[in-house]
Amino acid sequence: MSGSAVITRVIVAALIIVAIPVAGIAQQPVKIFDAHLHYNQEPNPFYPLERVLDIFRRNNVAGILANSRPNKGTHQLVDAKAPGLWVVPFIRPYRTRDDVQNWSTDPAIYDLIEAEYKRGYFRGVGEFHIYGEAAQRQLVKRVVDFAAERNLYLLAHCDEAALSILLAHNRSAKIIWAHTGFSTPTARVRELLETYPELAGELSYRGGLTDGEGKLAAEWRELFTRHSDRFLLGSDTWINERWFGYDAIVQTYRGWLAQLPEAQARRIAHGNAERLFGGKIE
Q1: Which of 70, 108, 153, 229 is deepest in the core (most CB within 10 A)?
Q2: How many domains would you assign to the chain?
Q3: Are the C-beta atoms of residues 145 and 169 closer than 8 Å to each other?
Q4: What is the dihedral of CA 14, 16, 19, 24, to 10 degrees?
């Protein structure tokens, strides 16, 4: 073997050795902030806390927006102080399933929100459900004002009519639109984002993101190009089946995130949550 051939082999081998850790880093899945997480307890959670934390670990979920019915589940997630998990707690205005329908007419709910806020660590109120003209109710406006005055976010599961009313209640309101309207036309979503600078969209159950084979829809690719700084991912573990399917939910997100430019994907995966809530994914 000639001297030049030996040198060439040495150089190639060195390049391979250097490339291995670089490739390993590139293949690490992007960390996810789950912006719609329920750890409901009626009266007990389906999964013990340690199993829930393990689900987060194996899916590289390093942050969660926690809200639960009742709020005991959120308290437990905060108190766990799990390494590598950033918990952003929201006050849920629900004690039981009945409150999903009745919260906006029950004065005791406002007292609940005030009492929970005194814990000192909550960053928002919600998820709450409200539709159409029901958003005009005085209690709803009080909750919106309560949040706006304290720089809290609102996680609102609502139709477009209710969303407009919530935004009109207080110009300082910061609203995360749960499910981004489910099926609201993409062009209308864009219009709303461009009209209301404090509005963000959470994407669990959002229809039309991909085709039947997992390819990102062209209209959503274009919307993310314009507004990748306005969207969050969520699992919405409102029933046990969502916990069963948690791995698949996260993998579906990863499937279409991988089709975006890296900067856009990272913003949606966790960067927007870091900016909104003033934290850092570890």
Answers
A1: 153
A2: 2
A3: yes
A4: -130
Q: Are 87 and 66 in contact (CB under 8 A)?
A: yes
Same domain, 11 and 140: no
For the chain, state the CA radius of gyration: 22
**Across residues 172-195, what is the average pLDDT?**
98
Q: Are residues 18 and 95 in the same domain?
A: no
Tell me which H or E stretch contains 117. helix 107-117
Strand partners, 231: 201
pLDDT attached to residue 113: 98
**DSSP class of 137:** S
Q: Kindly report, residue by residue over 145-156, the tens digit of the pLDDT.
A: 999 999 999 999
**pLDDT tens digit string along 236-254?**
999 999 999 999 999 999 9
Classify residue 80 as exposed, middle or buried by CB count within 10 Å of its CB (0-12, 13-18, 19+).
middle
Q: What is the pTM of this model?
A: 0.90
Give the CA distances from residue 265 to residues 7, 86, 255, 280, in Å, rounded to whole numbers and listed in that order. 41, 19, 11, 16
CB of 202 closer than 8 Å to CB of 36: yes
